[in-house]
Amino acid sequence: MSQASEFTEQDLEGKRGLAFSGDLTLARLGDLPRRLAERSGGDVGTIDVSGVERMDTVGALILLKLAEDSGASITGASGQTEQVLKQVGDAHQPIKMRPDKIGSVERVLGEIGAATITAGRTLLGLLGFFGGVCVSFVNTIIHPSKFRLHAVVQRFEVVGVSALAIIGLMSFLIGIVIAQQGSVQLAQFGAQIYTINLIGRLTMRELGVLMTAIMVAGRSGSAFAAQLGTMKLTEEIDAMRTIGVSPTEALVLPRVYAGVLMMPLLGFYASILSILGGGLFCWISLGIPPVTYIQRIREVVPMTDVYVGLIKAPVFGLIIALSGCFQGMQVKGNAEEVGTRTTAAVVQAIFLVIVLDAFFAVFFTQIGWS
Fold first, then answer.
1. Are 66 and 16 contacting, i.e. CB atoms less than 8 angstroms apart?
2. Rounded distance between C-alpha atoms, residue 222 and residue 69, angstroms
3. Chain segment 137-176, per-residue pLDDT in tens
4. Which is nearest to 351 in space by CA: 241, 214, 229?
5. Rounded distance, CA 36 to CA 7, Å?
């Protein structure tokens, strides 16, 4: 039979001990909190709960608060009483109304450390994702029936054909800008004819492929991340796994093929249009005839520059496709994550493209292709 909550006082070596009995539950507490407030003044050494038959979270909270205020220890707990006291004690933590003040140096170092850890984890995840793509690639070679030609051709159109207009316009204008700025500087030395050298080598070797990669990263890489992220949110990817279809083979590989195979074509196309834009400026502003311009381009641009651009392009395409697909597959939680991952895909792709471009520049210089 349940009993009302009660306590008695005991004198233990100059300190009071409180012994509780009955049921320390919300229904049986009665005026126990008021009586404790009136009679528990002074030091309390121990709180004995061996006589408590039942206890709920309210009773446990009262005991823990009493022990915290008086510095007493709770003894005699066993069974259900001990379990409730432990659970309530674990949950009874002070809540900070405002965060602790952190020094500027400590905060900056913390942010740098967090960013470094995030970058390392992202790089590891990207390498693991690349490994999965390689496994799927080998699997499609072993089992050609799993190769989805229609999906690949559709990606070719989206990544390559649909991008011709914007990449062509951008490259044409960049050629004009390079010619204009180069001619202004070379005019100080009476060497405006070398503007052709600047246009030919810079666009064919570096800017044609690099600017194309940046444009494809912003256009196609972001689209890959948004498409796969949306499919992840709507559980289409989980449904594909359920029916035995590999998302990597069905969704990622066609995009990787498109990036790798279309980038060399787009890069060469961009380089040619940059040269045409520079040639138009040289004809109108510098009075260099088109025939002379083309002849000079053939003389000053070695074939190694063409090879450099064609070697770098598929690597850039692979990086862009992997970054977009990887970030898209990481989406989870809510629609805001799609935008966050799309932005991350573009930034990651452009960063890696520029880093690899610097590596290629040093590498080709070391092997004599300079």
1. no
2. 58
3. 999 999 888 888 899 999 999 999 999 999 999 999 999 9
4. 214
5. 9
Exposed, middle or buried, 133 (CB in 10 Å: 0-12/13-18/19+)? buried
End-to-end CA distance of the chain: 95
| Residue 220 burial by Cβ neighbours in a 10 Å radius (0-12, 13-18, 19+) | buried
CB atoms within 10 A of CB 46: 18
Burial 98-108 (b: 16+ CB within 10 A, else e): eeeeeeeeeee
- Dig out the tokens for 129 from the structure: 């994702």
Q: What are the tens digits of pLDDT across the range 181-206? A: 999 999 888 888 899 999 999 999 88
Quick check: 320 and 349 in contact, CB under 8 A?
yes
Query: What single string gives the DSSP state of each residue in 46-105?
Result: EEEEEEEEEE-HHHHHHHHHHHHHHT-EEE---THHHHHHHHHHHH--PPPSSPPP--HH
Structure tokens that stand for 246 in this block: 């590999």
